[in-house]
Input
Amino acid sequence: MANVEFIFIASPLLGHIMQSIEMAKVMVQSDEDEKLYITFLLMKLPFDPADPNLVDSLAAAASSATHGRLRFLHLHLPPTSEISEFSSTNRGVFMNQLLEYRKPQVKDVVTQLMFTLPSNRLGGFFVDTLCTTMIDVADEFEVPTYVYFTSGAAFLGLILHFQSLRDEHHCNHITDLIKSNTDLVTPAFVIPVPLTVLPTPIMDREIWNTRFLHYARGYRKAKGIVVNTFMELESHALKSFSSKNNTSLYGKAEIPPIYAVGPILNRAQHEEEKSESIMKWLDDQPPSSVVFVCFGSMGSFGMEQVREIALGLELAGYRFIWALRRPPPVDKPMDFPSEYTTHDEVLPEGFLDRTAKIGKVVGWAPQFTVLSHVAIGGFLSHCGWNSILESLWCGVPITTWPLFAEQQLNAFQLVREMGLAMEITLDYNALKDDKVEKIVSAREIEVGITRMMDGTNEVRKKVAAMREKSKLTVSEGGSSYTSLKILVHDVMNNTR
Output
């Protein structure tokens, strides 16, 4: 068999890029015949503050681990004059516009790449959750596209369910079907889903109609959908995709094969200088004694909420490490959270002195590394899917505080359907239309932390059991290990 080349494209957000690099790496490593090659096209946003050396170091490590069969190419940013013509002040819409702009460039890059690699056959494209517009480019090369879905199977099911309602039942929007205060029955969930936890990308008419509806249609067009989850975690959602008596729960349009290959986790070390200080502090703490407070690279709060968090931590009295980020300026809505010059400017007076013996406030923390440390006993989290998988892998209980995207749905699934987390809040939404920041009180935070850190609670036992399952599933003979092998076999043998 000739070498087969695949093109991998991820949306230009750090979390998506890191997870997609890891996915590409494990695919190449799973090909025992060493005939599978991947070229990963790297994109970045012009306003992304992430250290460019971080992505480069991850790429170099992945390339080395695959003996050069995973390669990386940077796509250059458009000229500043053309970027300024993208009039959107919404980060998601901007990324859509940028991806559309990239399509001719991607076609040219792939054409040139295959010219320089005459011994390799172009096998297809892999695109992540938000890059389905690139299916058009794959179609021009007459090769299949696979979607790498970076969230959970239940969220995928929800999207496909609403897409089938729109396209097959002519429902313009979910709000046309439901009454207020009515929970939603959907195939991907065992129990009805409250409207308050439905993701903004689905509930917001403009976002749904202009972006996510098109993504969903792209998922249906794909040759397969690869999901970063595993059967032992989301058995109901994954089984819901199987047809029964030639009847699908997701409408008449066919759903391509689903490959559950998770958990896919990027465990690379980076920013070692900052990590060293954090890890040294953790080394001095007793086992399972520290609360890790982290809302991801995109999470931040205004001063009033920051002070409530600080007071809640003081009231709870547990050791803590808190990754505290500065929110973007009000007049720059597409900017990302950044570092504070000094945390004194936002924290209550004397907080750092009063908690000096039990707490550490940082601007950035290597999340997976911290969660892996024996001193961590609980995780106050925004419930991004990556964070959930990392926490379960490390056996660390979560107390939920979702912010945006599908995080409210993830929190609901963890707490109410799986019993794998406790809640501070399930329906907090940083993107509410009223633009008024909801304040979670110090008392609510104290209660949530105290319940999470109780060593006798049932959730802690369930998380410990799921930790073992998450490791077994990617081991030889496990469900995700097997699914990954099937995926590699299929992509190497499928033709359009």
